[in-house]
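Changelog note: in this version the structure field was regenerated for every chain. One regenerated record is shown below for reference.
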Amino acid sequence: MAKNRSVWVKIEYIVKIITYIIGLIGFLSVFKHISFIYSAIFIALYFAAVYFDYKKSFHMPRWFLNLTALAVILLSFFRLSLDNLVVPAVEGLLILLSIKFLEEKRFRDYMQIYLISLFLLSGSALLTIDIEFSIYFLIMIFLLTVSIVLLTYYSQEPDLELPKTTILKIVLKSLLIPLISIPMTLFLFIILPRTSYPFFNFLNRAEKAKTGFTDNVRLGAVSGIQEDATAIFRAHMEKIDERHLYWRGIILDHFDGTSWKGTEGNPSKSPLNKGGQRGVMSNEMGLKGEKVKQTIYMEPYENRYLFALDKPYLITLKDIKKYGDLTFSLPKEVDKRIRYDAVSILSDVIFEEGIDKNKYLQLPENISPEIIALVKGLTSGKEREETVKSILTFLKGGNYKYSLENLPVSRTPLDDFLFKHKRGNCEYFASAMTVMLRIADIPARLVGGYRGGYYNEIGKYYLVPQKNAHVWVEAYIDKGWIRLDPTPASIEGFVSHRRDMLFKIRLALDTINYYWNAFVISYDFEKQISLFHKIQSGIKKPPYLKEIKLSINKEKLIKYLVVSIVLSATVFTLYVLAFGRKSEEERLIALFLKRMERHGYTKGKSRGLEEFVAEIREDDLKHETYRFVKEFEENFYKDRRLTKEDAKKLKNIIKGI
């Protein structure tokens, strides 16, 4: 009876489809790290290969593709440098992958495509390990398992067709393999010894993001970064009043007429700031106010300063430096995701005696008479507090507008801002106020950092994007620094009051990134030891696990681990019993064929036992093998189960062959 063609599928088609998906995943995993030209070449060759495979009309000569691949390898080798080893290698692998797709594919070619795709995924992990990597990894592992199983059938018979139901069964059984491995993988991730030594850092390209924060401010040098919604850091903490959402980063005190920079002082002589000390406290300035604890997860960026809320009191991180102006830094740029704890005080004043007034009254030599005259007109005959209020009101409540477009760029940007354009971003407003305060003989400085943030109610953290980069002013009045923000942009420009569903979905999805950073990227040897100690002692969970509501104790953890292991072992055993266990007949045939291979005879898959035996030339050998076949077929074709005596008899015949 003819088979129903509508429900039969050629194995080759399934293998090719899965193979193209695996290659695409390899490309997507590295897409954002490679140059546009390599992406364009891959996409063009990839779709050309899809077309040729679909039409079965053309395949590139293998010798030509091999020469091209050799040229790509040589080019990638010469592009390698000590500063950047991974990206040229990844780009070279991507082109090799597209070349492999153009070939007329055999078993070996499919396996090479899978291997190159895995190498690409591994290369993306050297560049950055984010939540996308884990998704691509899981998808690829499942697809590889299914594809290799189907490829085994294809390698034996390229034109093989199977019913859809049979293929579905093969796929489902194949998926059990990675499913069984997941619980054990998680268990090994937790218990395997980890090291904080960066063995593979020499391979990594520095993972620095563009940022709205710099250690100098040049008026008018505003880029699209102020429209960039990507995250610079996430701060796990309780929600607070939005007027306190100033994230301190750096102090800028020297102005040359067009740009600001910081004249960095010596690190604090606090006894807690010794080399390598993990915690730096700074309450010698008499800060008073509400304490707020934060756990900061910072993305890599092009500077070394750390951010914390308002007036940082304590920061916990190895090798940090603390300065007398309540700023903190690392010895080098933040080139990977880091986590640190901070405690800040919500205080109106930073008390400090004996400041260097010349430093905070410095003015550029070319300060214009018009600005001096403006300040005198605003402050004549007024006390210091009234002077500050008058300048703040003039800038924030006058005819000046906040804008990121058509900013005044010239040799005299402040004059153009104050008297001509009357619009600018936070840098213009803060710079104008600081200069005007200094003209009025009031010490002042710029503070650079971030303003506001979006609070994620699910994860209980603030998401602070790049575009929230901000500068504000601190003025020295009555032996204390007071924060002043002359920028007229409302708080709505920095925090989210939006109610649209799309934004809520995006913020909810960011929770996944947060927990990925908190529990996967930040899981190191120190946390591992701390976790084991907490479990062993049976006391409350360690502080870094407070991000989510977990209740862990020794008995429960052991119980869950045992249950997971038992379930995994049970599923694996059932799988082996149901699908992996050979019958007695299959074992006897395998033993018989193995014995025949020793005599130089190999049975083809499509040949029957009697056909196989008929080709044997040696009479004695032929007699013994024919005897085995007859005994075996008498049981097998009569649909009679082999008894122990029958099986023993057949084994003795095999031994005599």
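Spot check on this record: The chain is about 50% helix and 15% strand. The chain has four domains: 5-191, 216-497, 505-568, 584-656.
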